[in-house]
Write a structure and sequence with these properties.
The complex is a heterodimer of chains A (303) and B (32).
Chain A lengths: L1 H15 L5 H20 L6 H11 L2 H12 L16 E5 L4 H10 L8 H12 L5 H9 L4 H13 L2 E10 L5 E11 L5 H32 L3 E4 L8 H16 L3 H12 L5 H27 L2
Antiparallel strand pairs in A: 1-4, 2-3
Helix pairs in contact in A: 1-2, 1-3, 1-4, 5-6, 5-9, 6-12, 8-9, 10-11, 11-12
Chain B lengths: L1 H28 L3
The chains are: A mainly alpha (303), B mainly alpha (32).
Chain lengths: 303, 32
């Protein structure tokens, strides 16, 4: 099915470029086919939806051909003046590891938001195609809940509190005599020899894992072919995409629950995001929509 | 108590939605 979509797309380019010189037309089609194949072999288009997304971003076949025709100058179009034109590639860009950076930030700093921040990081990390299953497990297990949750738990377990009291008695001369002060300490405390290394481990280990994962992701991204940016490439941000992000980010202020839900609907309607990306966003936002809804249901049922 | 629950529920919704928005924004921007 995917091959048929690509062939259909290339056929439309060939048809639109019918008036271009044969060698220029072949060069144009070959360049675009090479770009699609590079994206597919690097795993950027795992499913049909992402392939359609890639083709959308490349642009409409008629627009690509029109751009190539302009690049070649007004003389092209008459077959006799076959001047080779440069390929319609504006520039090449380095493959981005933004998704991996987001995952690592959520797993470490994001864990300051209890459970949600870390859980969102885990979801994003497992969608990365640059990390192996072992590395994803490492990211998940060092530490479940993130460093901030681990620090809070340690503080709760080993936190100590002291209370002091003294009793007053009436002396033989009738005056009040203050008794000895008695202090009691509750809670457990770790000896410094154990507590300090534990604290360092809780902070250092996640940071070390984060650095390791980013370095590996960067190295693997650099090994991928640079991504050409075509002249006719459609912009990633359209009205629907801006609406989706704005509704998710600030819609909750205006209309609680319904605002973010509308944002998710816009995201699913948009063709610019892949199915995986839409699912991840829905899972993350879903944590914030389902959990509070359950809490509110429980609270309301007890009123 | 109820007010605290409402505020907590609202905060969780807000944070999760913002994280989802950031994710979608980064996903789109990283393709440019």
């Amino acid at each position: 099915m995917s091959d048929a979509i690509v062939e259909d797309y290339l056929r439309r380019i060939t048809a639109a470029a019918a008036d271009l010189p044969a060698d220029r037309r072949d060069e144009l089609v070959a360049g675009i086919r090479e770009h699609i194949e590079a994206a597919r072999s690097s795993g950027q288009v795992p499913d049909e939806a992402s392939l359609r997304d890639l083709l959308d971003r490349l642009g409409d076949p008629e627009e690509i051909v029109a751009t190539a025709r302009e690049d070649a100058g007004p003389a092209v179009g008459a077959a006799s003046t076959a001047v080779p034109a440069p390929p319609p590639v504006l520039r090449y860009r380095r493959p981005s590891i933004a998704i991996e950076v987001v995952a690592v930030v959520l797993l470490t700093i994001g864990s300051i938001i209890p459970i949600i921040g870390w859980l969102a990081g885990v979801i994003v990390a497992w969608t990365s195609r640059r990390w192996t299953t072992g590395e994803k497990l490492l990211a998940t297990l060092v530490f479940p809940g993130g460093p901030f949750l681990a620090l809070w738990l340690v503080t709760l377990v080993t936190g100590t509190s002291s209370t002091c009291s003294s009793s007053a008695t009436i002396g033989p001369d009738g005056n009040s005599v203050q008794g000895p002060q008695v202090c009691t300490t509750t809670g457990a405390s770790l000896p410094p020899a154990l507590g300090i290394p534990l604290l360092v481990l809780l902070v250092v280990a996640p940071i070390a894992v984060a650095i390791l994962l980013i370095v590996r992701a960067r190295r693997r991204a650099d090994a991928e072919p640079p991504i050409p940016v075509y002249a006719g490439e459609a912009s990633g941000w359209g009205g629907l995409e801006i609406a989706a992000v704005l509704l998710l980010a600030v819609g909750g202020f205006v209309v609680p629950f319904a605002g973010p839900l509308a944002g998710l609907v816009c995201a699913w309607i948009s063709p610019r995001w892949t199915t995986v990306e839409k699912t991840v966003a829905t899972l993350i936002a879903g944590i914030g929509l389902v959990l509070p809804a359950l809490v509110l249901l429980v609270v309301v049922s007890h009123i | 108590m109820h007010l605290t629950s409402f505020v907590a529920a609202y905060t969780i919704m807000w944070i999760a939605s913002i994280v989802a928005a950031i994710y979608l924004g980064v996903a789109l921007q990283s393709r440019r």
